Structure formats: structure tokens, C-alpha cells
Amino acid sequence: MLTVAPDIEVLARFGRALADPIRCRILLALRDAPAYPADLADTLGISRTRLSNHLACLRDCGLVVTVPDGRRTRYELADERLGHALDDLRTAVVAVETDRTCPDAGEKGCC
Fold it and tell me: Which residues form the HTH arsR-type domain (predicted)?
């Protein structure tokens, strides 16, 4: 059963998904077009196992969905508005000091 999460939970899931550079790259690739895992792995230059783990996280966060396509499974953004949100975030002006890192940058985790 699909339910709508409260606003804070949605933002937290989105933030956790974006906290990993590989997941960001996957989301940006899927923003451009749906893709098959093998093609995504090749495009991103990562192993299929590693990609699979990140896709599972993004699926659990509710940001991507699977679409059966014959014997294959295609991935796409769960909602086209996510592509617009990614574009808005990507182009937002952020004040960053180049000699500092985010305090949570070393933490791993997923939704």
C-alpha cells in the first residue's frame, strides 16, 4: 500500500538520499531519462552490485520506482517533479567555504 509521508519525513528521506554522491549521480542520470541498471552502472563507472545497493536505497526512500519491461527492469524517478527539484537544488546559490567540509560528510547511512 502506497501512503503519503508527512512533509518532514519526505524532506529527511530526500536529504539522506542526496547525502551520497553516487546516489546524487544516479538521480541526475534518471532525471535525464529512465535507465536499466546495467546501463547506469556503465555510465557511472561503478559495479552492478554497488549500483544495486544504491538503487535499493533510493527505492526505499521513495525516490525511484521500477518498471517491468519484458525480462528487464527499468528505473525511473518516482515523480517527474523530482527532476525539477533536483534542477532547483543543483542551481541554487550555496555559500561554501572551500577549505571546510560538512560535519556529517563522513557519516554513512540510508533511508
Answer: 3-100
pLDDT digits (tens, 9 = 90+) for 72-105: 999 999 999 999 999 888 888 676 666 766 665 5
Look up the CATH number of the domain holding residue 12: 1.10.10.10
pTM of the model as a whole: 0.80
How many domains is the chain partitioned into structurally? Answer: 1
Phi, psi of 29 (to 5 degrees): -65, -45
Asked whether residue 108 is domain-assigned, the answer is no
Q: Is the separation of the CB atoms in 27 and 86 below 8 Å?
A: yes
- Residue carrying the nine cell digits 515523480: 79
End-to-end Cα distance, the chain: 18
Q: Alpha helix locations (H) across the chain?
A: 7-18, 21-32, 37-44, 48-60, 80-91
